Amino acid sequence: MAIQLQQAGIRDIVILERADAVGGTWRDNRYPGAACDIPSNLYSYSFAQNPNWSRSFSGSGEILDYIHYLVSHFNLAPYIRFKQNVTGLNFDENAGLWHASIEGGDTVRARAVVMAQGPLSNAIFPDIAGLEKYKGHTIHSARWDHDYDFSNKRVAVIGTGASAVQIIPELVKQAGFVKVFQRTPGWVLPRPDFETPEWNKALFRKFPGTQDALRKALYVTHESMALAVIWNSPLTRIAERIGRLHLRRQVKDRWLRRQLTPDFRIGCKRVLLSNDYYPALQQPNCKLVTWPIDRLSEQGIRTAEGIEHQFDCIVFATGFDVCKTGTPFPITGLGGRALHDEWARGAQAYKSINVAGYPNLFLTFGPNSGPGHNSALVYMESQLDYAVRGIQKILDEDLKMLDVKADAQAAHNKAIQARLANTNWNSGCKSWYLTEDGHNVTMYPGFATQYALQMRTLDEADYRRTPMAGG
Predict the structure, then answer these.
(1) Model pTM?
(2) How does residue 439 score in pLDDT terms, banded at 50, 70 and 90?
(3) What is the maximum span of the chain, computed from C-alpha positions, in angstroms?
(4) Looking at the domain assignment, is residue 116 inside a domain?
(5) 290 with 164, same domain?
(6) Separation CA 87–CA 279 (nearest Å)
């Protein structure tokens, strides 16, 4: 966002960072095997491509290096204030300013605010009875303990999602014994991960157009995957067949295959990519446990059939508290309205980026902007461009308020929810995409190209514009 604002000639910028370093989820998620499940040449910004990716799917450390490169190359350090934990946002409608309250008592005032806290930023532990009773070592995937020695330890892994399928193969190499507690098996597809040869990197450095061509090819390939994972189509059956063949090829034991076979349509939950997850589960020092967890005890985990499994360490690969029905901190808009209350039954916004009654506020990864098949950064760039246009309008026209109209927001969300009803995400499984009552406020029901197209134009008829006094 800061890079795009800079390039638009806007330099009165402050970045409030809760931590003491940049990097977000790639700073926090440094567990063994951490990597992106989108190819690196697509999981990077089109305006700052990196010719030196070491692999097709780079690890978290390399992605973090890329973020540090962005900060250095675009001279963002002067804008960043570290250890600034925002505790609230309040809009002063008389002055047309947002007041950001900082833990410790400071306040930052701004003409416009961009929410860039990220949906995958607050680690969550599962709601399991006895969690506080366990006396062994605990590690969350997003808060990895790099000092803990797994050698000869009995280790439990709770969860079999995107982080778990990366962690488990690495733990099996290190630990004495690993038990994996699975609630629901997921669809796992092969991961086409290859080392990038030096000649390829040199080609990208000398002829950047070749890298751009690869990026476009990857984009088109991933766009086609929408036909398999977003909607129920013949390609869905093909994708499921690939998943079953991958399982059959890597798991010979029929009973284990049955335990690992999903009972929901592919795409309903996040699709997993791994070449080494299934082999790891079959190692002599690894066992899959499918009995439901009843509670944690002082020594380990007690499952529903009454068996207590004892461990030295429990690893929670249980994801994040994604704000689907609230906000990360109190946000107060016009007339004292609270966004947390308005989103209590499910978040909604206009084009995922603005909310009626909260002028001059822009969201990144707002409601219904999640990708199911393509790079998140493709969606992100569209949001950044849109926010820049909105902020430029506020500054150029000296607006006190640029506020999306409630009826425009309602019409947009009615259309989005109608489209979501026919997607695989809403086909009956339970996932983090949905609220407790099954409302999908997370995903965008279409191609990334469609999303970018809707973000290309800021339709002034959908906004109320209030000039500053005397403007």
Answers:
(1) 0.93
(2) confident
(3) 77
(4) yes
(5) yes
(6) 45
